[in-house]
Amino acid sequence: MTKKIFYLFVLILLGGGFFLINVGRVYAQAGRSLTIIPPKFDGLFANPGDTAVETLRVRNDSDTPVTYGIKIEDFTTSGEEGQVVLEEGESDKNFSLASWIEMETSDIVLQPLEERTISFVINVPRNAEPGGHYASILFQSTAEQIPGNAAVAQRVGSLVLLRVSGNVDENAELLTFSTPNYQKSGPITFSMRVENKGNVHIQPQGTIIIKNMFGKKVAEIPLDSRNVLPGAVRKMDTVWNQERLLGRYTATLISQYGEGAKKNTLSAAINFTVASPIAIVLIVGGVIAVLGILIFMVAGWGRMSKAMKIIATGK
């Protein structure tokens, strides 16, 4: 009887643990239920004094109704990966955008799987600072409390990058363009780091041209470009998805940025070697074998010449 009670107690504990784990999983999934289209507006232009009207779509992907409050915050980036940081009242006024945006509503209720279009207006002041201005339109759900769990509110945003005309300074520097000098095999990852020294966001576009040791072009891959905000350093990785490689290669970066008629250029070239350890052993072994054959042939020819000379002269 004692053993039966013990086994029953263990089953109850296991069943309870399974229930708690799944509740947490369902709750976590509910926190990722809103889709915003587009997630980023990065091609907006305006003149001082202009009024621009834009729209975005939001969709509730969950199976329950959700209420979202809408809030506008300025943002910047942190680190070389471009992590978005909301400034929440402490923004740089030179790049601020939040106070210029008016939403058609301050909150929204979405039924399960409902999608809705929301418009917003950007009122650009007549004395607006030329260059880039940045804000995020945030949708925050009402925090829901589940017994035994902390209250969690979903917060999803769409980034707005606006360029105001005027005395715009487009100025960037290519800090590094690199890949490991020796690699055993592909794919090959090229990294470029760009510093934006201007007052507007840029997005370098271009290609990486790869040539083999004989100067023949073997690949041309498009640059995986990213937005670089003013004052930021951004790291961008571009992958050459080629696995079977052998030899010495040269990679040349040719990139341009800017919105003017004359584009600004960023360029650099690097060399790298790709060879597996087995290939290196075979190559070294082949070179040694060829040298041995040549030495043997030279030495053998010398002995043959000496013998013929003895035969001809009798000495």
Listing every helix as H and every strand as E from the N terminus to the C terminus, the arrangement reads HEEEEEEEEEEEEEEEEEEH
Span from first to last CA?
A: 115 Å
Helical content (DSSP H or I, runs of 4+): 10-25%
Indicate the mean pLDDT.
83
Morphology call: elongated
Number of strands: 18
The helix-and-strand class reads alpha+beta
Tell me about this structure.
The protein is α+β, with helices and mostly antiparallel strands. Helices cover 21% and strands 43% of the residues. It is built from 2 helices and 18 strands. The chain has helices at residues 2-30, 277-313, and strands spanning 34-37, 40-46, 51-60, 66-78, 83-86, 101-103, 107-110, 115-123, 131-141, 155-164, 172-178, 182-183, 188-196, 205-211, 217-222, 233-240, 247-257, 264-274. The strands form 4 sheets. Strands 2, 4, 5, 7, 9 and 10 form a 6-stranded mixed β-sheet that branches. A 5-stranded mixed β-sheet has the order 12-18-17-14-15, with no helix packed on it. Strands 1-3-8-6 form a 4-stranded antiparallel β-sheet, with no helix packed on it. Residues 3-32 have low confidence and may be disordered.
Furnish the topology, listing elements before pairings:
Blueprint: H1 2-30, E1 34-37, E2 40-46, E3 51-60, E4 66-78, E5 83-86, E6 101-103, E7 107-110, E8 115-123, E9 131-141, E10 155-164, E11 172-178, E12 182-183, E13 188-196, E14 205-211, E15 217-222, E16 233-240, E17 247-257, E18 264-274, H2 277-313
Parallel strand pairs: 2-10, 12-18
Antiparallel strand pairs: 1-3, 3-8, 4-5, 4-7, 4-9, 6-8, 9-10, 11-13, 13-16, 14-15, 14-17, 17-18
